[in-house]
Every structure is written in C-alpha cells, then in structure tokens.
Amino acid sequence: MAINQYHYPKGTLMKAILLLSLLVAQTLSFTVDASTTNKEKWISITIDNDAFVGNDSGYSNGLFVSTFEVNEKPSKTPDNDFWVSPLMWSMPQDNFTLTANAYSFGQSLNTPSDIKIENPDSNELPYSAILAMSNSYITVTPDYADLATTTLGVVGPMALGEEVQTFVHKILGANEPQGWDTQIRNEVVFELSRARSYRVWHTQDNSFDVLVNGRASLGTIETALDIGTFVRYGNNLDKSHATTLLSAARISNPIAVDGWYLFLGSRVGYMFNNIAVDGNTFKDSRSIDYQNQYVSLTTGFAYTWHDISITFAINDFNILEDSEQEQALADLTEFGTISFSWKI
After folding, report:
1. Which residues contact 71 (CB under 8 A, 6 or more apart)?
2. How many distinct structural domains can be found in the chain?
C-alpha cells in the first residue's frame, strides 16, 4: 500500500521560524515595556475556526496574538502610535476616561468547501491566506467610544497558508489540502478602519445595556460600511462597553471588566470589496461573485476573573445567502472564536 507523504517546500522551516519569531518578539517586547510604565497591560490569544460551528470549510482558521496598553488617566494629548496617525484627524478631542493602544499580529486562512480537490470549481471560495499586523487606538467616555485601526500585511504564498494548514492537518490526521497551488497571488495589503459605539441605554444598576455602533473601512483587505446594535446582560457593563468595538476585527473579542456578560449583536452593511472573495487587487487571480449587502449576527459571553479573561462567540457575518455563490461567501463568514486574555 502506497503511503502519501508531504514534502515541505524549500525554505518552509525558515519561514515558520520567522513567523514564530515575530509572534514571540511582539509578546516579549510588550512584556519588557510593561515594567517601565504605570499603564495597565493585557495580552490575548484569539483562535478563530469554523469547526466551532460544525463546519470545516471557508474561513478555516485564524490565530492572532494581541497586546493592549490601557491608560486609565489619559491626558488631553493623544497617546496614539504612529500607525494610526492617518486617521487621527477623525478622532474626537474630549475628556476621556480611558485610552488604549492595541497591537495584533496573526494569520487567517480561507479555503473552498472541499480541500481534497486539486482544482476547485470557479464558484468556490479561493484559497487564500493573510499574514498581518494591526495597530488600534481606542478612546473612551462614559457615553461613547471610538476606534481607529491600521492594518498592514501580505497575502499569497508569502502568508504561509499552505505550510500552516498542511502542518496542522498532518498533526490532527485530517485531510491534506490539495488546492493551494490555486491560491491568490503575493501582494502587500492594507486597511484603514474607523468605528464609534454609543451606549444609548442602560439600567440603573448597569446590568443591562444597549449599544449602537457604526464602522467604515477602506483598503485592499476590505472596504465596507456598516451599522449595528449590541445588547448585553451582566455586571459592570459601564466599564467594558468600548471593547465591543473589537468584535468585528477578528483580532480580539470583547472582554469583560471585573465581571461577566452575555451579548447579542447584529450588523447591516455594504461590502465594496474583500480580498478573500474578490482576489488580488493588482493581479489576476481567482474570485467569486457575491451579494454586497450583508446582515451579520454574533452572540457569546465574556468572563473576567481577577487578571484573566475568556471570551467565546459564534459569528455569522452573512445571513442573506440565497445562492451557490452566497453560500460560498457564508463559508467565509460563519465561524466561532475564542480569546484568552491576561493582565501582566
């Protein structure tokens, strides 16, 4: 009986070491910096996977390491980092109760519904991977919060999607993906994003609240506009309303502050482009047709105990699918996500 063995491409080991080194370097540099200031520091690891919702296609996997620096006594001078400077003209000037800088580094993979096929159908979601770094700046008042995010990364073979998925599937004994030769091509990508969330209603004891938010993004990764609503039940909700702005970013989940809460959210929006379905911006590549309008749902919980937090959410970023192409897009947008965060 013949045994099929996977032979790693030349240079794969060095690429994997580089990827791991970047993750470790980000974490270690943040930890060292944490001892030199009085700001509150958090680190989180977020895992996205469609297996959490009983599916194993489309948005197959994502892994992100994020660092948060929270300033509970901000000055009137913005303390943002360089990366979000192009967006700071749109950020408010106010007496903030809190500001935060967040960095995230990670990789996400997208595949068609059947990874055993070497040449997937043209109506299937293309193979793609993105390796990216994001910097977010958050400002908070009792009634509203703002988010500015800059994301820079690469797609294509440089993002190491084939190597990572093959390695993980080999460990798990899962099917070896056959179609990565059809993935979208190498390209540098970016996205600028702005969002605001209003806390429009809450009970007197802050156990129940309603948030309304809006988001706009521009870039080769995605360009989109949407508005949404969050309903939450728990405790200390007045201290954590800003974290819901992170729920659409796929880098981190909202976290509770000294407590817990359950949440249910919905968004309606229009997506002008998304590299996972439109393919390369400046090169020819595979792509699929899709409906630009979308309605998304997300639900989950967040729990913090002392200096440790866990969040789990189920996401469906497109509940309007009504055709084969739309089902392919649904494979991209239906997934579960879990985050572990701890204070350092």
Report:
1. 39, 40, 79, 98, 99, 100
2. 1
